[in-house]
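hey so u asked for the seq, here:
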Amino acid sequence: MYKISNSIKLAHSKDRVWSLISLPENLNLFHPFCKKNNLLQSDGEKIIKDELIYLNGRTYHRFFYKWDPMNGYQIKIGTKDGKKSDVIWKISALGKFTELTITVTPYLSSKTPKFFYPLFHYFLIKPKLKSYLGSVLKGIKFHLNTEQKVKANQFGTHPWFS
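ran it, structure tokens below
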């Protein structure tokens, strides 16, 4: 219903993009708001559950419920016992390029009256999440192009996670 997406075109093969985003604890390499990404559970090469500790100390758990090698995955993310948002990571081949798209369907907060939620979503949540996703995608591109780890807040700060 209220989905937010952002994409990036990468001059790398699907195989290379998949090998990065499917690597355990991958956020430590490219996520500009990640203080620490810890693997909590895996099954062979498939990630089942991990933990993301943001720069501001907020801790989220990611539960991988659909794993589609070379194409992407779907996760639920949120606090350990709290509400979860749905996130889809999708890889698409575009000739010589690969497109990576991240789509978030945020959970509906009970703190905002349903009547006001559309305004709250379009004027606050959507721009902030679009910016957040853009920074994560820039981090992936930076890491793929340079093989260097992204620095904290490398592409600017974020009010929710920095």
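The CA atoms of residues 112 and 154 lie 32 Å apart. The helical segments are 14-21, 27-30, 117-146.
lmk if thats what u needed
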